[in-house]
Amino acid sequence: xxxxxxxxxGMADAYVTLGTYGCLPxxxxxxxxxxxxxRALAIDAHLAEAYACRGCVRxxxxxxxxxxxxxxxxxxxxxPSYPTAHHWYAIxxxxxxxxxxxxxxxxxxxxERDPLALAIKTSLGMKCYFAGRYDEAVRELSTTIELDExxxxxxxxxxxxxxxxxxxxxxLRELEAAIRFSGRSPEIxxxxxxxxxxxxxxxxxxxxxxxxxRLSDDR
Length: 219
What we know:
Blueprint: H1 5-20, H2 26-43, H3 48-60, H4 65-78, H5 83-94, H6 100-113, H7 118-130, H8 134-147, H9 152-164, H10 168-182, H11 186-198, H12 202-215
Helix pairs in contact: 1-2, 1-3, 2-3, 3-4, 3-5, 4-5, 5-6, 6-7, 7-8, 7-9, 8-9, 9-10, 9-11, 10-11, 11-12
């Protein structure tokens, strides 16, 4: 059905997720997401899912913060029950703007609508990490890992949090787990290289740097 707006919005969600999780280059997938969203909104100008996704693109890729906020608010007005609108508004707009209390409220609204969503629960820990509230971040991320120890993003941000707390052995354990469950993405490798550097293992840090340079030939 070439006129099914939800399918275009879903395709855009997939492209955006691939870009924000570092699976594919943002410059390749974000324009595809934008094209799909234009098609979705041309079919249905009241599609909340499309506005939430476009808000994400405008925030994390275009850095058009005011336009992004308008889209997120439009999505929430159209469909308050849609958890992703609250979630992406929080982690992709409010957190980068350092509006941490508003982000907390938005994430709790998202969790009320989808209580077991690992990505939303992880974002609560990410919000604490970026706010510099590391003890809270450890608690939130550890709770997520108790639900699913293989959820790589939670392990990744727990490792990053332990690094900031100079708990280097624990950080190494979590980052190695993140690689085991999520692969050697540039983002996770960078965090591992940084850990090696600040903990004094310069040789290991340079090995990670060399690997990132090699990856840059293809990615």
